[in-house]
Amino acid sequence: MDYRALPIPRVPFDKVVSIEMLEAVGKEYLETYFSCIHRLLKKDGIAVFQCITMPEGRYEAYAKGEDFIRKYIFPGGHLPSITQLVDNITKGSEGTLVVERIENIGGHYAKTLRSWKEKFMVNFESRIRPALMIEHPEMGDREVEVFAKKWEYYFCYCEAGFATKTLGDVIITVGREGAMELMEGIPL
């Protein structure tokens, strides 16, 4: 189901967690996405978003261009900057979702991409190639090799991006006024 078509629940949600969804939403729909979260959350609700991001200094050029990932791996994908996310959270929620915390976990994601690449390479001939040939019998050996090289490049490209902070991976925690659960553990 399209997130934009979700009905307003009879009983709003206490919490919403969104993991790597925002990259697929697109720049033009970020405010709409956060507006949907706004409608789904109860008055003292909490939401957590995990999203791959583009650094502020590179965002404008990135947003106007096309790169390898958007052309070959995730067509239509878009990596927002942290400012884009925070601005759209504020607009989409009519100012009712307050940013509690932003944590950049990109350094950890470099190791994740390295592990994914290693597993992809180890399993390509025994598992991935056969599954690919079943699902796409029209693919010849050359197309399968191109597929493998694109994904190997993608994993290396992203590993380097996260290791050098050319890419970010953030967890943003937001809460409404009255979200007292976010205050737990803070001595008052």
Automatic annotation (TrEMBL):
<protein>
    <submittedName>
        <fullName>Putative Cyclopropane-fatty-acyl-phospholipid synthase</fullName>
    </submittedName>
</protein>
<dbReference type="Pfam" id="PF02353">
    <property type="entry name" value="CMAS"/>
</dbReference>
<dbReference type="InterPro" id="IPR050723">
    <property type="entry name" value="CFA/CMAS"/>
</dbReference>
<dbReference type="InterPro" id="IPR029063">
    <property type="entry name" value="SAM-dependent_MTases_sf"/>
</dbReference>
